[in-house]
Specification:
alpha/beta; 13 helices; about 50% helix
Length: about 300
């Protein structure tokens, strides 16, 4: 019951004002969101780059309600690409986009999202970087993978995200594990029905390992999106068995979470990419993450209390 309540709260201006004004809110937001402005995000990029880490940047703003918002999100990413180009950070920073921010859920959304994201991918290539398409709930998977296939015709470095808790993901991993593909594997954070997704954590973990085996054995570039120490260790072992060099896969973790582990992996010679969200829509981002899976609330607060 908590999920729908939190989702409704994410759209309430009155609750937004209350939550935004609460003393406990700002430290949590500052911990997990780089800031509201592009300059804040770029400062975070430079800081992490100095510590040997790469990044992927997410301008907050999914679940839009009209095409004008999609254009604003497109323009925000174009500005981001220009900033990366000007500061010579294209080799260290890529961009992550949610196609709902480009209009995927609106009428004619598939074509609208493709039209809006294409210039962003073009600008990323000009900046010497690339784009990864974040995966959202299960109803968007077919559209997202179809847009991925279209983008990869011209920009084969475009990446995708797959979620191990969906029943279909092992098959998707087989399809995506070809030469040149970039695939971020995560467990999944949306509240999905039992008809399409594993509900038990142990089943999700087992599916994650099966998917990871497929990606490591394939010809693509696996990106391990996990904070789970066990999954990190398994990924290292599978990479070793597959004969992969340290620059033939990477680990990815969220900004502000398990920072000591991020630094440890870098010190051991691994590629470590940090997922940085930024933008003024931090309230909606935060509340939707809680609504997708209310257990995230415990995770975020525990992470805040035990930094690193």
């Amino acid at each position: 019951m908590l999920g729908p309540v939190l989702l409704a709260a994410s759209r309430s201006d009155s609750i937004r004002r209350i939550v935004s004004a609460a003393p406990v809110t700002r430290p949590v937001v500052d911990r997990f969101v780089a800031g509201e402005r592009l300059g804040d995000a770029m400062a975070a990029v430079r800081s992490l780059d100095a510590r040997g880490m790469e990044v992927t940047l997410d301008h907050l703003g999914e679940d839009i309600t009209d095409p004008a918002e999609a254009l604003r999100n497109r323009d925000a990413y174009l500005a981001l690409a220009e900033a990366l180009k000007e500061q010579g950070l294209g080799e260290r920073a890529e961009m992550s986009v949610k196609l709902s921010a480009f209009g995927q859920a609106l009428a004619g959304g598939h074509d609208l999202a493709l039209a809006n994201v294409t210039p962003v991918v073009e600008a990323a290539a000009e900046a010497g970087t690339t784009v990864t398409l974040d995966m959202e709930d299960h109803t968007t998977v077919d559209s997202t993978l179809a847009i991925l296939a279209e983008l990869r015709r011209r920009f084969p470095q475009t990446g995708a995200v797959v979620q191990s808790y969906l029943f279909r993901t092992e098959e998707d991993c087989h399809a995506l594990a070809g030469e040149g593909s970039r695939v971020r594997l995560v467990k999944g954070a949306y509240k999905e029905p039992a008809t399409v997704a594993y509900q038990d954590k142990r089943e999700v973990d087992r599916a994650y390992v099966r998917c990871l085996k497929i990606l490591m054995a394939g010809d693509g570039y696996p990106m391990i999106g996990s904070h789970d120490p066990r999954m990190v260790a398994i990924a290292q072992e599978l990479a070793h068995r597959a004969g992969r060099k340290l620059d033939e896969y990477e680990f990815q973790m969220l900004y502000g979470i398990r920072e000591a582990e991020q630094e440890r992996l870098v010190a051991d010679g691994h590629r470590m990419r940090v997922y940085i969200p930024y933008g003024t829509d931090w309230y909606g981002y935060f509340m939707r993450r809680l609504a997708e899976r209310p257990a995230n609330m415990t995770f975020f607060l525990r992470s805040l209390a035990t930094r690193g």
